[in-house]
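Page 47, continued from p. 46.
Same chain as before, 200 aa.
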Amino acid sequence: MKRLPVLVPEEDARVALIHLYRAEVGRMTAYRTRLDTTTNWAVGTTAAIVTFVLSNPNLPHYTAALALFLDLIFLWMEARRFGSYELIRKRVRLLEEGFYVALLGGEPLENWHSALTESLRKPIPAITLLQAMSVRTRRNYLWLLVVVYLSWMVKIDLDGPFPDGAAMGPIPGWTVLVASLGLFLPFLVLAALHRPAEEG
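Result:
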């Protein structure tokens, strides 16, 4: 096995890397839980608002926009957490492809220790916030937004003839529908912006 380029005894370096791997896997698990928690908040909030809007005939149809607004906040929070998760996941993979592969007698990833050192020295997220938002939108939030828009359409149909029931004050229903579609299209673009290599 190739000697590690560190200034401590070889055996101490191995033990330190084993502990680092365990710590990074623990951090990755914690961030995975935080991601799932944020998604659960978004799903629960969307379900509660949609149910409340559809069950109350006195509420105007545009009250459903509150779910959209809250989902965007949750998306931003989750994208920030996902960036940190990806940084930690990258370190775990470097340790697995470099240290553990060599420990098991395989051919390690070239220069893995340099990449790991740089990641520890400068813990910059592996992807940008926009890329993280793209991934989380495609995996979770695009479907929540579709639910919000469909429930909004149902609410409009329940309140009055479609599309006239979408009118907001002096603004005609068709204008409101076209404008809302224009607001939804950027999310489709966002979802297609970044696709990690592991997604194919």
